Structures are given as structure tokens and as C-alpha cells.
């Protein structure tokens, strides 16, 4: 999951609460890790985590500052931004808050 830094502090705790119900392991980059550091199934992400498709209850979270960073990171499974205008760009999955 790629999440925009502008909504990280508001959106990630809400998302993690839902994931906790299913005991989903979150592999988070440093910025995401610091926002949800009390999450019980939290791991610090390695670079490989951002290119791994998990076949289990595990997700990687990477924080980006802009759309170019998200695109530069390659395959995006779920991108979360705070702007409706970004819906015009095609991703495998785009969630807008």
C-alpha cells in the first residue's frame, strides 16, 4: 500500500484498526512505522517488502510525498491519496479518502 504523507497521520491509524481485527502483519517504512508504532503486528519494512506479493495476511506500507514518488516505485497495489483529481490516473487499486 502506498499512502500520501499528507494524510498519513489521519488515515493510517484508521486503516490499521481495521487490519488489526484480522491480525494483518504490517511491514511499514519508517514514517508509517512511527505513526502506528503501537500496532501489535508491526514490522519495519525492508526494500524487498515493497516488491513482494504476500499470499497471506501481510501488507507493506510505503509513504510518498507526491504522485511521482508513487509511480517511480513501480507496481502499486493500493494507493491512498487525499485528492480526488488523482483518480484520473490508473492504478491496480486506488482508494481516495
N- and C-termini, Cα separation? 14 Å
Low-confidence stretches: 86-97
User: Shape from CA axes?
Assistant: globular
Strand order of the largest sheet: 3-2-4-1-5-6
Rg measurement, Å? 13 Å
Structural classification: alpha/beta
Order of helices and strands: EHEHEEHEE
Number of helices: 3
Helix content, binned percent: 25-40%
As a percent range, the share of strand residues is 15-25%
Main sheet overview: 6 strands, parallel
Number of strands: 6
Query: Overall pLDDT, averaged?
Result: 78
Describe the protein's architecture and organization.
The chain has 97 residues and is of the alpha/beta class. 27% of the residues lie in helices and 24% in strands. Strands 3-2-4-1-5-6 form a 6-stranded parallel beta sheet. Strand 2, helix 2 and strand 3 form a beta-alpha-beta unit. The longest helix has 14 residues. It starts with a strand and ends with a strand.
Can you summarize this structure?
With 97 residues, the protein is α/β, with parallel strands linked by helices.
Topology:
Layout: E1 2-4, H1 8-21, E2 25-28, H2 30-35, E3 42-44, E4 58-64, H3 67-72, E5 79-81, E6 94-96
Parallel strand pairs: 1-4, 1-5, 2-3, 2-4, 5-6
Features of this protein?
27% helix; 97 residues; globular; disordered C terminus; 3 helices; alpha/beta; six-stranded parallel sheet
